[in-house]
């Protein structure tokens, strides 16, 4: 028995050593560059199965999506990229940013990857891009899970402390290098954008999950307004959660994403059939 225990311990120890941490965002064996709209866009690919695209937030990168990559690569073919000017993707000096530019990059990337009917999980700015892809490129998208997105500028859509904090930070900066100027331009995008007419989303028929936290930076009423503007959507609020639940509680977030993507989407009636007599 003692020898058996020693053997089992050795196997477990070897298994732990034999599985090094994957350097998501810096993984040369999974990474590739694509020429997209005048820039080089960096993409990593993992797993096999139905395609799933993961889109990070403002100032983020592939590395920020590591908890979702590690989970979904077991059952899906996961594509994750650095948006223009983020991570390892390049930028055009002096360019101002808006969400139309970023969304067009992602649309061209989907074409370059030769994938369609793709599911998308977008977090924060990635959630905005996911909504725009569903609106503007519906023939390429399966479902969209959009977390912590906004469709109006921060002063109308976010906690007031965020809007004032971003403005204060931007005004305090004196960027000198091209990279510093680019990073500040990305941050400035939060002040003036996005700025979309909610009515332009009324005809979106792709199944979309609009999700947020009860302590999110995005105002709950704003998230609810996004949900109500969509033609075929569901709404989910994570209790005791903020904007960063995909980092803080990845298992909880991944469970909801997985459920939405795997379960057939069907809008529920107000009441079961046997109680319809209660409705006018």
UniProtKB/TrEMBL annotation:
Domain AB hydrolase-1 intervals: 50-159
Coiled coil: none
Any GO molecular function: hydrolase activity
Organism: Sandaracinomonas limnophila
PANTHER family: AB HYDROLASE-1 DOMAIN-CONTAINING PROTEIN, HYDROLASE, ALPHA/BETA FOLD FAMILY PROTEIN
InterPro entries (alphabetical): AB_hydrolase (IPR050471), AB_hydrolase_1 (IPR000073), AB_hydrolase_fold (IPR029058)
Name of protein: Alpha/beta hydrolase
Pfam families noted in UniProt: Abhydrolase_1 (PF00561)
């Amino acid at each position: 028995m003692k020898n058996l225990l020693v053997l089992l311990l050795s196997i477990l120890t070897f298994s732990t050593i034999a599985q090094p941490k994957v350097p998501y965002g810096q993984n040369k064996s999974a990474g590739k560059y694509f020429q997209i709209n005048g820039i080089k866009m960096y993409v990593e690919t993992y797993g096999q199965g139905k395609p799933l695209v993961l889109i990070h937030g403002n100032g983020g990168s592939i590395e920020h999506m590591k908890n979702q990559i590690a989970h979904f690569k077991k059952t899906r073919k996961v594509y994750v990229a650095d948006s223009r000017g983020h991570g390892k993707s390049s930028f055009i000096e002096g360019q101002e940013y808006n969400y139309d530019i970023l969304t067009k990059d992602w649309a061209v990337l989907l074409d370059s990857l030769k994938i369609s009917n793709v599911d998308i999980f977008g977090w924060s700015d990635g959630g905005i891009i996911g909504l725009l892809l569903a609106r503007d490129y519906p023939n390429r998208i399966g479902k969209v899970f959009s977390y912590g997105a906004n469709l109006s500028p921060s002063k109308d859509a976010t906690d007031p402390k965020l809007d004032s904090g971003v403005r204060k930070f931007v005004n305090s900066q004196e960027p000198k290098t091209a990279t510093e100027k680019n990073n500040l331009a990305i941050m400035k995008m939060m002040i003036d954008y996005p700025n979309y007419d909610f009515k332009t989303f009324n005809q979106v028929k792709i199944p979309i999950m609009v999700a947020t936290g009860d302590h999110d930076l995005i105002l709950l009423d704003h998230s609810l307004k996004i949900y109500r503007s969509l033609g075929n959507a569901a709404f989910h609020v994570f209790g005791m959660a903020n904007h960063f639940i995909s980092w803080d509680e990845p298992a909880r977030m991944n469970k909801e994403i997985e459920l939405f993507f795997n379960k057939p989407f069907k809008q529920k009636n107000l009441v079961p059939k046997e109680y319809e007599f209660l409705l006018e």
